Amino acid sequence: MIANTEKFQEPTAKPLTTTIIKRDGRKMRFGLEKIAAAMQKAFRAGGGERDSDYLLKLAMKVDEQLAHLGMTEPTVEQVQDVVEQVLMESGHVQTAKRYMIYRAERTKVRERNTQLMQTFDDITHKSSSESELKRENANVNGDTAIAIKSHGNVDWFFEELDRKLDLCIEQLLERLEIQSTKKVRNFPFLFEQTRRLR
To answer: Residue 27 forms beta bridges with which residues?
Structure first.
């Protein structure tokens, strides 16, 4: 759902739905106030706003619809589908559209992040015989030293990467200092860029 930054008073009526299943499979408390906050974000995205009592009434309609559909432990996606339905049935078609667009954008971001983590996992944890990504370049040994040494230890990998970057920066700064005192221009690319900026 849309990020919850606004605080809503928890309604006095207890929701019919008590649990929601998150995308990672965890079961969490179902909160009408979270649904109300998500709908408020959608209204604001269109330049409008609704008072919290009205939004909580819409959230209760979502809860009632979930119960009517027999969803005792709905998934996040199922709740979002019903939120869209309730917004449209309540005459807020444009707000429902903005809510749908936001959901689609968030899905793309999640998919990209998942793909990025899968790529990272392939590079750091799999041998070249198991990873298509490592076999793409036939001129390079896919089982690189850093992947072999790390044995999938992500903390070690980033510590080693950080150490090597610090070393490179330190060496570059030392060379620049030496070159500037000798007034020897062995870094023409740096001096050329400086001249262009003037």
So the answer is: 21
User: Is residue 45 very low, low, confident or very high in pLDDT (cuts 50, 70, 90)?
Assistant: confident
Residue-wise pLDDT tens digits, 142-180: 555 555 455 556 677 777 777 777 777 777 777 666 666
User: Is the pLDDT reported for residue 80 higher than 90?
Assistant: yes
Mention every residue, 6+ apart, whose C-beta is less than 8 A from residue 184.
none
Q: How confident is the model at residue 103 (pLDDT cuts 50, 70, 90)?
A: confident
Task: Identify residue 92 by its one-letter amino acid code.
Answer: H
Is 25 in a helix, a strand, or coil? coil
Residue ranges of the alpha helices (H) in the chain?
32-45, 52-68, 76-89, 93-125, 132-135, 145-150, 154-182, 188-197
Q: What span, in angstroms and rounded, lies between the C-alpha atoms of 69 and 25?
A: 21
Short-list 165, 161, 137, CA closest to 150:
161
DSSP character for 75?
Answer: B
Beta bridge partners of residue 119, listed in sequence order: none
In angstroms, rounded to a whole number, what is the distance separating the alpha carbons of residues 77 and 63?
14
Structure tokens at 176: 């620049």
CA angle 28, 29, 35 (to 5 degrees): 105
Q: The pTM is what?
A: 0.56
